[in-house]
Structures are given as structure tokens and as C-alpha cells.
Specification:
There is one protein chain. The protein has four helices and six strands. The chain is an alpha+beta fold and about 150 residues long.
Length: about 150
């Protein structure tokens, strides 16, 4: 089934609705952007990564990319090494195993929910969005290219 919507600016967009049982080989996934907010009081941020979770495939993964020049444009005194360390810790947390530290024994869903919980640190998760995918790892890369790089 397909619906056509006309947006306020006059653009036409098609939205495909998939009913339960009609997803084919695709599974529901959730994702959130990782944002770097160097000075919370200013409210400025840059996208620096994406976290993807697919329950059906027990997948949770993160990919990050820090544009150092953009970060320093927002805050010349930003702790670039600290931000890189925080982003790296998120990727390790998603990977699980010994690299995940205390979360090593947690399932993919629990690790994802912990990462997307609101926080007031310099690296913050954005709102959670959903979609359909056959390959959540490839979706992680696609979203990184589309929304971060």
C-alpha cells in the first residue's frame, strides 16, 4: 500500500506503509544520532555518530565520525581527545564482550537503551527513530554517511 502526501512547501512525497507480516525480509530497527554539545548553555551541537538497534537480529552497533574543525568552530577550547574517547567508548559498549566493561553481559537491547537514555554530558543521544532494514550493520554505515559525514 502506498500513500502520497503533499507537504506545505508543495513537495510530494510517497510513504510506503508496511502492515504486520508484510515486511518481507526486513526487520524493524531503531536509531539515534550521537550529538556533541560542547557548551550546553549555547545549545549548539554537531552530529558525531549513530547508534542502531535491531531486536529481531539481536544487533546493536555504533559508528562515529568526529569533525574536529566543526567542533572547534563551536568551542575553540573543546576537549577533542575527551570527546573522541567518549565516542570510542560508545562503539565498544555496542560491540559487547570484554570491551563493553560492566555491560559485557547485557543483551543488545539493554546496551542500546542505556545509550539512548537522555543525559547532560557533552556527548548526547538524539531522539529515537525507526525504520526497516535487512542488514542493520549496513544501515549503521548508511546512516553515518547520510546524517554525520
Amino acid at each position: 500500500m502506498s500513500e502520497t502526501h503533499i507537504h506545505m512547501a508543495g513537495h510530494v512525497a510517497e510513504r510506503h506503509i508496511t502492515r504486520a507480516g508484510q515486511g518481507g525480509d526486513r526487520d524493524v530497527f531503531e536509531y539515534a544520532l550521537l550529538r556533541v554539545v560542547p557548551r550546553v548553555e549555547r545549545g549548539e551541537c554537531i552530529n558525531a555518530g549513530v547508534v542502531v538497534y535491531c531486536r529481531a537480529q539481536a544487533y546493536v552497533g555504533a559508528r562515529t565520525h568526529l569533525d574536529e574543525a566543526r567542533l572547534l568552530a563551536l568551542d575553540p577550547g573543546a576537549d577533542v581527545a575527551g570527546v573522541r574517547a567518549a565516542l570510542g567508548a560508545i562503539e565498544r559498549h555496542c560491540a559487547g564482550g570484554e570491551e563493553a566493561g560492566q555491560a559485557a553481559g547485557d543483551d543488545a537491547g539493554r546496551r542500546y537503551r542505556w545509550l539512548v537514555a537522555p543525559r547532560s554530558t557533552i556527548v548526547q543521544p538524539g531522539p529515537v527513530h525507526t525504520g526497516l532494514t535487512a542488514d542493520p550493520a549496513a544501515e549503521t554505515e548508511r546512516l553515518l554517511d547520510l546524517l554525520v559525514r
